[in-house]
Design a protein that fits this description.
Number of helices of chain B: 10
Low-confidence stretches of chain A: 1-7, 21-25, 396-408
Strand content of chain B: 25-35%
Number of helices of chain A: 19
Largest interface: A-B, 31 and 37 residues
Mean pLDDT of chain B: 91
Helix content of chain A: 55-70%
Strand order of the largest sheet of chain B: 6-7-8-3-9-10
Largest sheet of chain B: 6 strands, mixed
Strand content of chain A: under 5%
Structural class of chain A: mainly alpha
CATH topology of chain B: Rossmann fold
Oligomer: heterodimer
Distance between the termini of chain A: 20 Å
Shape of chain A: globular
Helix content of chain B: 25-40%
Strand order of the largest sheet of chain A: 1-2
Number of strands of chain A: 2
Order of helices and strands of chain B: EEEHEEHEHHHHEHEHEEHH
């Protein structure tokens, strides 16, 4: 490190460090059950909101599910996968190809409830197939190759138009039939065809995925993944069959991605290759990192911020709320007028409050970017760091050690 | 019959042949050391035994079974466990978790008892049971690496330069520990640059130079050998 860089870093770091220490460096333990309780209440009352809000929460739930899946690959096994969208697309296309009426392979034979497990199974298989050739790769190299896979799946969907309808996409994807529950009098509808029902479906899926992945993390498999993440050679020396466990991580993550896709397809009703761009992979990875790698609350918080906030900034309700703060703008404008009266600076005044919402919507990606930067500066280990990450950031090594400290 | 038998072992990386026909034996209950300077092929020999690299030629027999070319996890399950060069600590896992991973392939009910045994052997590790491996000092990490390898209940323990990067006092401690493990009846193949310490503890020793064995004999005999004294014990 050059001396200059060190000095510069110290000058910036000190005030940030103070800010961090003063603010919410760590939520006290007693708040955790409260947060969980609030979250459960929120989950339960969401269906009573307006459709646009339920839709937003559906997307948050979808991305939380994807985040939990990617977390298996990236957080637990330490395999940086930048092409996670490939598996999401696989799941969506399995359901789409077999259930959209204008699809070349439409079959009335398969109900959605056959297609869902089929999508998950095919997703897991694709995970193994994509995993096999990239197994010897590590770190950056793996990231680049997986990035390629994400694009390959999208381009395949675009060019195999005999199978996928190419860029014109697939419409009217088959929706889950719940007439059995309806006949029992448990549900008001016989198909899942509105946002409320899809919301319930994604909540169930997210909880199932949470349950499975947290059990996996605490199992022998999870320990093997962590060992591989820390030091692959040492893991081999412990007698861990790294090939097998890396493939397991890949296909578990892939199956969860496909599950998300299989629920997304009937919800959105129309899929085309463009729905599965690199941005999906980036968003899922970003929410895992922002939430706090390896932590479940983190994934939920990350998807609320990453998926919820940009949607929220577009809502007309947001603009309505902002107009209530008109007095802030008027106050600021008076100050500006005062300055203009005594100086020649000629500062421009703030626009009237009813225009704030539109401006916010326009600038939402800038606001959003600033928010992400702020989070990563103030909480480098994520919003809700997992127990392990927390330990890592709080303890610094007592002695400099000669051994190679497992650099990823 | 020897527990471990290497004959004519050739191995390397890419275009480089690091060892060119190594033959050595380790009998049950013995401590055998392989000494040599940096780059002589010591670690390559160990990596070939544990299956981390594939030998190009030659034969490795362990407990009567040919193991050359087998996968590392199959070799571990036969009872060879190693302390890798540079320790290979899982730095973001706790001390207890590191030790548990040492017993990854075991399914018997005595893992917990062995954990207690390891903590008796290394009281420092007990104190730091819930600390992350990466926060330990170099000496403690070396103890952890040895303890972790013992958790597999190996028939043969491979030690790759346990003294590397440690202060003289810590080197003494580590070698005292190796002596204690040996008293409990372990079979050890020790690779070292620190020839003085290694020869003192070893029953037998081999000297490796540029990938070939140049000398062999009992530890005491080699410690008296003129060429060894000049080359490895710093005497003129």
């Amino acid at each position: 490190m050059p001396e200059r860089g060190k000095l510069g870093r110290a000058a910036i770091a000190a005030p940030i460090e103070r800010l961090r220490a003063r603010t919410w460096e760590r939520l006290p333990d007693w708040t955790h059950p409260l947060i969980w309780f609030a979250l459960c209440i929120l989950v339960l009352v969401v269906p009573t909101f307006d459709d646009i809000w339920v839709r937003m929460f559906f997307l948050v739930g979808l991305y939380a599910t994807l985040g939990l899946g990617l977390n298996v690959v990236v957080g637990m096994a330490g395999l940086l996968d930048l092409g996670y969208v490939a598996f999401f697309a696989t799941g969506a296309y399995v359901v789409g190809i077999l259930s959209a009426p204008d699809s070349p392979h439409y079959s009335a034979f398969f109900s959605y409830w056959y297609l869902l497990p089929m999508a998950v199974g095919i997703g897991a298989l694709v995970g193994v197939l994509l995993g096999l050739p990239v197994l010897p790769l590590r770190g950056d190299y793996l990231a680049i190759v997986t990035l390629g896979f994400g694009e390959i799946i999208r381009i395949l969907a675009l060019n195999m138009s005999d199978q996928t309808n190419g860029s014109s996409g697939l419409f009217e994807i088959g929706r889950p039939d719940i007439s059995y529950l309806h006949n029992l009098g448990l549900t008001g509808r016989s198909t899942v065809d509105n946002v409320q029902y899809f919301y319930v479906m994604i909540v169930i899926a997210a909880f199932a995925v949470w349950f499975v992945t947290s059990r996996l993390r605490d199992s022998r498999v999870g320990r093997a993944w962590e060992a591989i993440r820390e030091d692959e050679d040492a893991a081999r020396g412990m007698g861990i069959n790294t090939t097998r466990y890396k493939l397991m991580a890949f296909s578990t993550g892939a199956a969860i991605g496909a599950l998300g896709g299989a629920i997304y397809a009937p919800f959105i009703d129309f899929i085309a290759p463009n729905s599965f761009s690199l941005l999906v992979s980036i968003n899922v990875l970003a929410l895992v990192i922002i939430g706090g790698m390896g932590s479940t609350q983190g994934v939920v918080a990350g998807s609320l911020i990453l998926i919820g906030v940009p949607e929220l900034l577009q809502f007309s309700e947001t603009a309505d709320v902002l107009s209530k703060f008109d007095w802030v703008g008027q106050g600021v404008n008076q100050v500006i007028d005062g300055i203009n009266a005594v100086t020649h600076l000629d500062l421009s005044t703030l626009p009237p409050a009813e225009k704030w919402g539109a401006k916010l919507a326009l600038y939402r990606f800038i606001i959003f970017g600033a928010l992400l930067v702020a989070i990563m500066v103030l909480r480098p280990s994520g919003l809700f760091p997992s127990r392990r990450r927390k330990m890592e950031f709080e303890h610094t090594p007592e002695h400099e050690t000669a051994g190679p400290a497992g650099t990823a | 019959m020897a527990l471990l038998d290497l004959s004519g072992l050739v191995a390397g990386y890419g275009g480089i042949t690091a060892i060119k026909g190594i033959s050595l034996e380790v009998d049950p209950g013995e401590v055998v050391t392989l000494i040599g300077s940096n780059g002589a092929g010591k670690s390559t020999t160990l990596r070939a035994i544990s299956g981390l690299i594939r030998p190009r030629a030659g034969r490795i027999t362990f407990a009567g079974k040919a193991i050359s070319g087998m996968k590392p996890h199959d070799i571990v399950s036969l009872g060879i466990s190693q302390v890798p060069e540079g320790r290979g600590i899982f730095s973001r896992l706790t001390v207890a978790e590191n030790l548990a991973l040492g017993a990854f392939q075991r399914h018997d009910g005595e893992v917990h008892a062995d954990l207690d045994r390891t903590f008796r052997l290394f009281p420092r590790l007990k104190e730091r049971e819930n600390q992350l491996g990466g926060t330990l000092s170099g000496g403690e990490q070396q103890m952890l690496a040895i303890g972790r390898a013992l958790m597999a209940r190996p028939k043969l323990l491979l030690l790759d330069e346990p003294s590397m990067g440690l202060s003289p006092v810590l080197v003494e401690t580590i070698f005292a520990t190796i002596a204690e493990i040996r008293r409990e009846g372990a079979t050890i193949l020790l690779v070292e640059q620190n020839a003085a310490m290694a020869l003192e503890i070893a029953d037998r020793a081999y000297v490796i130079e540029s990938g070939v064995i140049t000398l062999q004999g009992t530890g005491a005999a080699l410690a008296q050998d003129d060429s060894v004294r000049r080359a490895y014990l710093g005497e003129v």
